[in-house]
Design a protein that fits this description.
eight-stranded antiparallel beta sheet, 430 residues, mainly beta, single chain, elongated
Length: 430
């Protein structure tokens, strides 16, 4: 045995992660780099007053100066050792902020970013997760967030600004391997609660599978899988699928789904799950569950053996009951969420016997039974997203309506007469 001299270069030991080391020792002998990934994103609107300022760690930085104020030239507010700061924010206020990364060699300032807080921070009975922050920090307000995505970092590349001025957080996950590959928001409800969920999201380009919504409650289970072509009710008899209009997800827009989980009106019958698209008053699908299951929670996210990808603008949940679109004040989520307005009249004031549609689903010609003979009737065909595709007079010969050239999907038929009465009915084109 003899003494040896060992010399280390760039050596670091950490009990947490390797990323913690460069913040203590700066091998570049200069001021640290500018911070990246600062949140809220510049220009963000309707930011909750509880939202912290967040940014990514900078190698070589020993601390961070936070500049925050209502002037475009914010002044120094505090110095922190972490990568977040939770200020006391006022509602309906525009703030400006920048972050300075520091070490013994100096300070590097980021660009000034600005955001505006919610006008009314009270969400009422709605519990909301907005896409303004990293979900593992925002979700605990009401939702648990869990992810074990392999190789996916939570950084600025995962966020975009929506057309409503909000921020949305995006996920792209590869096939599930064992327990890896999941992400989810979980809301834990009280046993026996009927629930209304409003969720807005968009698909990621070139990705077929988008998201799922899974409900455990009222003694039942339902799982909705949403991809580019269909909405599938996995825990209903025969696993029915409802088709979206062709190209529905291709424009990159955010789409709004309202989902209610309710006790079936028939005593002792299974859970009834109903889905409304774009806040339209008529559902695109309503099916019972066929799986009894104990549990009291609702999950939103992904799971399975294929790629999934979605950007989430917001999750709004009302645990106080079942509220279809436009059913009253309790049905209206916070106004900052900028939900689309219904585009088809919901007035049903039809005089006389209610007409019937058959066959439904239909492939070629939609027939209408019990048409009135005492007044002229016109019709309007509308897609599930509210686009009018045909508007004409309905012939008294009841030759029906030729729908053979319509793309597969869900449609609404609106009947209205010269006397002012109207009726809207749903059919499926197969």
């Amino acid at each position: 045995m003899k003494d040896e001299q060992v010399r280390f270069a760039n050596f670091c030991a950490s009990e947490s992660s390797a990323e913690a080391c460069p913040s203590v020792i700066n091998f570049n002998n200069g001021a640290p780099a500018e911070v990246t990934g600062a949140l809220p994103l510049s220009g963000a609107q309707s930011v909750p007053t509880y939202m912290p300022l967040l940014w990514n760690a900078v190698p070589g930085a020993m601390s961070y100066n936070v500049y925050l104020g209502t002037s475009p030239a914010p002044t120094l507010t505090t110095n922190v050792l972490t990568t977040s700061f939770a200020p006391a924010l006022a509602p309906n206020t525009t703030y400006y902020f920048r972050i300075g990364s520091l070490n013994d060699a100096g300070e590097t300032l980021s660009d000034v970013q600005q955001f505006t807080t919610l006008t009314n921070p009270d969400d009422g009975a709605w519990e909301v997760a907005r896409g303004h922050a990293r979900p593992e920090l925002e979700a605990p307000q009401f939702f648990e967030f869990d992810t074990n995505l392999t190789g996916v970092e939570i950084d600025s590349t995962g966020r975009i600004t929506t057309e409503a001025g909000n921020n949305a957080y995006c996920f792209l996950s590869g096939p599930k391997e064992g327990s890896n590959g999941n992400y989810r928001w979980r809301y834990r409800q009280e046993e026996g609660e009927e629930v209304t969920l409003v969720l807005r999201f968009r698909a990621l380009p070139d990705n077929n599978n988008i998201t799922y919504v899974e409900f455990y409650g009222l003694g039942w289970r339902q799982k909705l899988r949403i991809n580019r072509s269909t909405l599938k009710f996995e825990k209903a008899p025969d696993e029915p699928e409802v088709a979206f209009p062709p190209g529905f997800w291709d424009d990159g827009a955010f789409h709004t789904f309202r989902i209610t989980f309710a006790n079936n009106p028939v005593a002792g019958a299974p859970l009834l799950t109903t889905v409304y698209l774009e806040e339209h008053a008529f559902p695109i699908g309503s099916f019972p569950s066929d799986e009894e299951k104990d549990g009291s929670y609702l999950d939103i996210g992904r799971a399975g053996g294929t790629d999934y990808g979605a950007c989430y603008d917001f999750i709004a949940l009302n645990p106080t009951g079942v509220y279809p679109p436009g059913s009253g004040p309790a049905s209206i989520p916070p106004m900052d969420l900028n939900l689309p307005e219904p585009t088809v009249s919901t007035a049903n004031n039809w005089k006389g016997p209610t007409p019937t549609l058959y066959p439904n689903p239909v492939a070629n010609r939609l027939l209408i039974g019990d048409l009135p003979t005492d007044r002229e009737v016109k019709f309007r065909l509308v897609t599930a997203t509210g686009k009018v595709v045909r508007n004409a007079k309905l012939l008294r010969t009841n030759g029906g309506i030729d729908v053979a050239q319509l793309p597969v999907g869900v449609y609404f038929l609106q009947l209205f007469s010269d006397e002012g009465d109207s009726l809207v009915m749903r059919f499926v084109k197969r």
